[in-house]
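Sample pair:
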Amino acid sequence: MPARPLSDDSLQLIAAVQNALAEHLGADADVQERALFGSHAFMVNGKLCLAIKGDELLVRLPPPQHDLVAETPGLRALDPRGGMAGYFWVSPAAYATRAQWQHWIKAALAYNPQARATPRRGPTRQSHKP
């Protein structure tokens, strides 16, 4: 089944993130884009940094700051059970101004060098013993 087309809001947000990453990191940065968990994800240096889903922006922030950041209006945790500390969906109201937008982009990029990369899972191999 083919993927659903992206909404105009999503396409505009993807372009805005692409522009912000180019502005902050330069043209030679290691940025990869791919579909991930139903979103359009931006991997910076092999680590999930930002993503777009609908009209929301996903940011990856330091896990120790999770509880403090969770109090911010317009944010919701990626995993309400607490399994993904530091990952937040930012609603349009929380990135409506240029200052708010820049805050979330800069915060995610600032954490990226310290973030751990999750190894890609490949197909599992079964060992065959003769």
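The longest strand covers residues 47-53.
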